[in-house]
């Protein structure tokens, strides 16, 4: 799984867990709708750290909390070099 896929899955899980809409996340994070759609639909091949920080801010959690999921363990990710 790519890092983008992992971020999209984490976002989906947090949206459900927090009973939050994607629109509300876009508004609270400052990420534009088109950019969020690219992440969620897998059209984005690389997600920047800045974007992940904005996502965490949008969920009102720390970056550590966002990344603290086994989906982000190195053995679960395809890392391109």
Structural descriptors:
58% helix; mainly alpha; 81 residues; 5 helices
The counted number of beta strands is 0
- What general outline do the C-alpha atoms trace? globular
By DSSP (H or I, 4+ residues per run), the number of helices equals 5
Low-confidence parts:
none
Could you please describe the fold and organization of this structure?
This protein has 81 residues and is an all-alpha fold. 58% of the residues lie in helices and 0% in strands. It has five helices and no strands. Helix 2 packs across helix 4. The chain is globular.
Chart the SSEs and their pairings:
Elements: H1 3-17, H2 22-29, H3 33-40, H4 49-59, H5 63-67
Helix pairs in contact: 2-4
Task: Write a concise synopsis of the structure shown.
The chain is built from five helices and no strands. The chain is mainly α and 81 residues long.
